Amino acid sequence: MGLDKTVDSMDEAVADIPEGASLAVGGFGLCGIPSALIAALLERGAGGFKVVSNNCGVDDWGLGLLLRAGRIARMTSSYVGENKEFARQYLSGELEVELVPQGTLAERLRAGGAGIPAFYTPAGAGTQIGHGGLPWRYGADGQVAVASPPKETRVFDDREYLLEEGIRTDFALVRATIGDRHGNLVFRSSARNFNPLVAMAGRVTVAEVEHLVEPGELDPDEVHLPGVFVQRVVRVFPDDPAATRRIERRCVRTEQEGGA
């Protein structure tokens, strides 16, 4: 594709994602999720996805849409609240779930993208994370059908560490505030938490950007993720219903409490 990595539509951006692909998906809660790319993937009809993401959206938005449609076979996440359908599918044996400490998940994505196959961390040492036996999948009878394996451990300076493997996926989907045609990306606030790491982990990374600029318009010091990690860039328009920014849990004060 050369240096210009832009594609014309969301549909084109995800057209070659096949059945059963592994996907790393950016976002933190509903902040910074590639909602337009998720909607395009939902329309395509492929499924059986093995998804790595901090969470799985909510029942009616984000990855929750793919989950509700039965398109996700496995989730690797650090937080799974706010989604009743997720709990139902997991407990009924329809969904396989690997729970990972949040910092470990972030580092596994970063390590995979940096070409580091594994690393040692103290997070989870001495717990079921390290000992194994966490239920990944339940059977129809409610018994554990697939459990997590024990992790290799080593002691450094009298402290136990677990060996965690880096994560690489077939595709990665991210959302950036600003991107140029070369794939250099800028994220805003909390959207920067997982999106850069997810983008690094994908063999093919697709970025939906709110503001598309020409090469050279971004100061190099402003770039959060260099274009070497991005293969496709597609602009998302604010009037696209799939691009709506939603709040996961809206909390307001009443007038009696001193709010507006």
From TrEMBL:
TM ranges: 20-42
SMART domains: CoA_trans
Pfam families the record matches: CoA_trans (PF01144)
Matches recorded under SUPFAM superfamilies: NagB/RpiA/CoA transferase-like
Alphabetized UniProt keyword annotations: Membrane, Transferase, Transmembrane, Transmembrane helix
Entry superkingdom: Bacteria
GO molecular function, one term: transferase activity
Protein name: CoA transferase subunit A
